[in-house]
Amino acid sequence: MLQYIELTIxxxxxxxxxSLLTLMGVIIGITAVISLVSIGSGMQASIxxxxxxxxxxxxxxxxxxxxxxxIQAKGLTDADARAIEKVPGVAxxxxxxxxxxxxxxxxEEKVVTVWGLDPKKAAxxxxxxxxxxxxxxxxxxxxxxxxxxxxxxxxxxxYDRPVHLGNTIKIQNKKFTxxxxxxxxANREHDTKIFGNMDTFRELMGKGNSVSAMVAKxxxxxxxxxxxxxxxxxxxxxxxxxxxxxxxxxxxxxxxxSAFKVIEVVFGGIAAVSLIVGGVxxxxxxxxxxxxxxxxxxxxxxxxxxxxxxxxxxxxxxxIIGLIGGSIGIVFGYFISKLINVVAAVVLGPGILxxxxxxxxxxxxxSFSLIVGVLSGVYPAYKAVQLDPVxxxxx
Length: 395
Prior knowledge:
Helices cover 56% and strands 19% of the residues. The chain is α+β, with helices and mostly antiparallel strands. β9 and β10 form a beta hairpin.
């Protein structure tokens, strides 16, 4: 095998320009595979981190008010929250009401997303949530009717001027005082949320006892999947199945990861096209080698070289081209993925998009480039062994 490798290196250095162009096809293909697939892997890792930070013992119940594109389904209410709290395995339930509405800060008007919840349960609901940690001030407390806690974006640059503790923001022409500011999170949505008293917001919007979502926390040792089924069965008594969704944080992770897995496969498929083009380049180069080395092949066969040995020369040569190109492409892909991180941090903000290059990804990319190299060399090798030694020596 060492003899084949030595002969391959000699042949590659013989025509450096052609060898470089052949390698470029594989390098570009593998670079594309690594950089694009790393984006999909990064998305999956980010989603998993966010939901794991939310807590494995949390269950999210959301209202589905849309039927046939129209808001006509029966929504969730406070009565549903009280009923769920009685379900075995549930420690407590925190109902929430969400709405996008107008706001005003120092004369500047913007649309904001507000989340109302029971102030008594605010800290208890989100105290162990990685994406919602207090930077300044405090969480909502019992008795807070017109106090709010804001996402970091408001403190940064949501409005023309930053919002600080003690400032007031008008929502639906009602003044609310900022008593807490969240840390910057990996989830941009968290940074643009405002949390306040659910009853206050519902009164402003005329929504009575309407509930948009609920966070249920399970008892220690309770089987989350079992509790999800119990909650689902309880809600079926008063609602149609398409009026609500009950999911544990783990189920949400799996659902989102499945979606991003599809994205990762699509990205990989697009990049693989580039690698296939690189394989065509290898095959073209190897066919040219067969034509140029006809006399050399004739001498080899005339001096006793078997067809298998001749085939090995060309297949090993194309395989090494695939390996070298793949290795260089992996390095380039890694650095491009890091560059994507830097650009994403500047354009989207820190932590929003972070690419991930795994060892498994590297092994698969290298294996793929090797396979492409070997397959690209099969036909040229076959052409080589078909040459008649006598005719080859005459050329």
